[in-house]
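Practice problem. Given the sequence and the SMILES for 2-acetamido-2-deoxy-beta-D-glucopyranose, write out the predicted structure.
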Amino acid sequence: MMTPPPPSTPVSPLLLLLLFVLVSSSSASLYDTFLQCLLNHTQVLQQQQQQWQQEPSQILHAPTNSSFPTLLGSLIRNRRFGTASTPKPLLILTPSQPSHVQSAVLCARRTGTEVRIRSGGHDFEGTSYVSRAPFLILDMFNFRLVSLVNEEFPELGLKKEDCAEMSWIESALWWGDFDSGVAVKALLDRMPKSVNFLKRKSDYVQQPMSREELELLWDKMIELGKVGFVFNPYGGKMGEIPMSDAPFPHRAGNLFKIQYSISWSEDGIEAEQSYLAKIRELYNFMTPYVSKKPRRAFLNYRDLDIGITDNGENSYKEGTVYGVKYFAENFKRLVKVKTAVDPQNFFKNEQSIPVLPRSSSAMTQYSGSTETTGKMTVLVIFFLFLKDLMTIFS
Ligand SMILES: *[C@@H]1O[C@H](CO)[C@@H](O)[C@H](O)[C@H]1NC(C)=O
Ligand SMILES: *[C@@H]1O[C@H](CO)[C@@H](O)[C@H](O)[C@H]1NC(C)=O
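Answer key:
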């Protein structure tokens, strides 16, 4: 039912109607089962003196609910993953406290529904809101855990008129192209003003490029047209932090990071293929000038070109391909953590951390015990932490 029939096949309207009824009734019953599961779990939690501040029905959104299109719309930041043929979630959950997350994870597991955890605008490949399997989205927007930090900029040695001094959170408004003077709470409005089709890629540069090489690069960009670059300087404090201190590994030895970008507004597969070919050509052109063996990449500029897994038999082998590009030596440690807290690979996407292959890890059956729930919550928090960390350094 996931794959639409090929356009050449004549489909009777009756069959379509039947399909529609089947799909909507199956999602309605998933809603009911899910709600019942949340309610059951609520009772368990209440016995443990933990109160729900919201009714379970308030955090659960089915496709038939009026809240659903708005929530889904606020998630999509790349039009390539917001088309009619993009697979849609069966449910969206908007937890506002840890016990909601625990219950949601348990109930997803019980109903055999894959979980995607909503990420921010940097989720360039839609992995946090699209899956081929029947799935739901956990959207933690109502989790107001992160306190807004106001930090002053240190002296940069520039002339005063070169700088606009503002708090960190105000700089987020500036990057977001808000008009100056707009109140910080404008950041809470999640509906983007407009959404483009886009593709992003990344690289790390460890040797200086010569003037001649830069000239060649400008010529290439002019030839391709439309493609863009952002160079982010590294070094300083970042280079002093040991690689092993956090999952993010790109520390000492990196001069700068590159973001490759291309955005377009024309619909259709032809436009998409032509723009994707341009950015990939620029990426190939840069091969001699960037990190090697492996060519490194920045997780927060998610790029499925550098390797994916289908989370099947070969997930460890497949995961190692992109894993060492994103995490270098830290990849092995992440696999150990993953294997300890999520041995059945419940939390997964096209570029998730794999578990160790079956031969080297003893698989335990899921029991639904409080201990497992606790471990899963730790994993969710861990993923969120990782995401925040990447954002801080992006
Ligand atoms: C909820 O609890 C009832 C009673 O214990 C049980 O029969 C039912 O299967 C549970 N439903 C779900 C969806 O977990
Ligand atoms: C949301 O949709 C479900 C399933 O169709 C329905 O049972 C529920 O009453 C709806 N909730 C609201 C608030 O509309």
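Check your answer against the key. Strands lie at 60-61, 91-93, 114-117, 135-138, 197-205, 228-233, 256-264.
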